[in-house]
Amino acid sequence: MDKNFLQKEKFFKAPKPEFYNFRKVSINLPFLISNGKKIKINVYSKKVNGNLLLMLYEPGMRALYEGHIQSEHRLYQSTVLGFIGVKALFKLGIDISILHLNESATVFAGIAWLDILLENGMSMDKALIKVRSYTIFTNHTLSPAAEPIWTMAQMDRYVFNNIRNTKFRLWLADMVKKEGGIIKLSSLALKIAGHSNAVSKLHAIKAKDSYGISFKSITNGISNRWIYPELLNKYRQLGIGDPIIDLLPSDYKNKLNLLKTAHMQEIKQHAKEDLCNYLLSERQDQYGEPVVIPEDAKIILWTRRFTSYKRPELLFSNPNLLAGILEKNHMHIILSGKAHQKDDDIKLLLQHILHVVDENKILKKRVHFVVNYNWQLARYFGGADIILNTPIPGWEACGTSWEKVIANWLLLCSTRDGGVADVFFMDNKYKTSSPFFEITGTNDEKAAQSLYMNLDLMAKVLGDPDQWKNTVIKQLTAFLPIISGTRMMIEYLNLRFEADL
């Protein structure tokens, strides 16, 4: 194994927007920092399906979230996005009906819009009321301790120079002083937003515990791009339509029962062939070799962002037991995802996992770390059979990796966390019977034992076509309403406009 392969992984470096056929907008929008330097930010636009997309660019912005959590580069990125983004909208004559602050780092868009209203003669009270009326703050960070903390000096360097209204600048400075000379962006977001939401029902409860205020629950939904095309056509033939962008018909449960086992398995086999061919021809494993998985194998996914609470190591707690399960059931594991560039601890953990794999001849054959995880790879995951979701219960905000494949008829094996746990709030029948293979256990050791037991159970289900079909239908019945992107958008619109009705 190439022990330096993690350092060789390609991290996203933003290419110039011309690469994506964006058109440069002819407006001059400098960004100011405390040494008097003006940084010219270029603004690009593109129409996609009738929607105007704007992109901000200058070479120094670099990768998303580059640097440690307290890195000033993150503050620079956030303030450029907020101030220049809103100024671009204003210059283009675009008014705001919804200002969505998706996590606290985007709060400077609200700050910038307040400044524009104040500079155009509105009082502070009226400006706050107006901005609050259309601003939604969506929280994803369960622990306030995970947020960066900015000092007065840092705010002065990047924020205050870009606020034109003197009274507003003093108001904001006074808020920082009242916080002890530091500021968390969530404090600003909660001050500016009139609506706040978490991204699953369980997360709303946890967020209230963390922040001391109530959050509306709007569970994340997904795009239909993640559904295998042949399978998506099957939903339409059933009369369900597109289960992600169409509202589910009232009789969708009955329509799901019209699925025929043989046709379902035929579609899944096509998807598996596409996945295996793509891996073989386009991707490499931890050894720098093509990823070879037999098309008759049962394929397990652990594919998501690498971070400690998601417990990527749980699956490898007992390497010999895992190897026996994989060998006995002809299973292969696709392991893929990226760590934060500066998260050295999780990189070391991943190296440890791959060392464990390398030391076991069965795991070495059946566990494939697919390097450079990206959306192109994820679009083929409909060809897999099982998705593993192993976060510490209570730590996951929503988690969308499992959502991206649940409509592709994969068996879900998960802890009762994030968006998965929504079913237990929505239907009493799931109080005693989970619609998925649940990982239980009050500690990592017991959770690992439950995970291994479920791998054997799922292998048996996959080996019985009719039982597999019934299990898939049970999952779809429970989760299609939860993963719907349109359902999510309707709930956001209702949250924004409910006070206007």
Commentary on this structure:
- This protein is α/β, with parallel strands linked by helices.
- The chain folds into 2 domains: 5-217, 3-Layer(aba) Sandwich (Rossmann fold); 252-481, 3-Layer(aba) Sandwich (Rossmann fold).
- 44% of the residues lie in helices and 14% in strands.
- The protein is built from 20 helices and 16 strands.
- It has helices at residues 5-8, 72-91, 108-119, 124-134, 152-158, 166-178, 185-192, 201-211, 229-238, 252-256, 261-282, 319-329, 344-358, 361-366, 375-378, 403-406, 422-426, 444-462, 465-483, 485-497; strands at residues 23-24, 29-32, 38-48, 51-57, 99-102, 135-138, 149-151, 182-184, 195-198, 216-217, 298-303, 331-336, 367-369, 386-389, 411-414, 437-438.
- The strands form 4 sheets. It has a 6-stranded parallel β-sheet. Strands 1, 2, 3 and 4 form a 4-stranded antiparallel β-sheet that branches. Strands 5-6-9-10 form a 4-stranded parallel β-sheet, with helices on both faces.
- Helix 12 packs parallel to helix 18.
- The protein is globular.
- The termini are far apart.
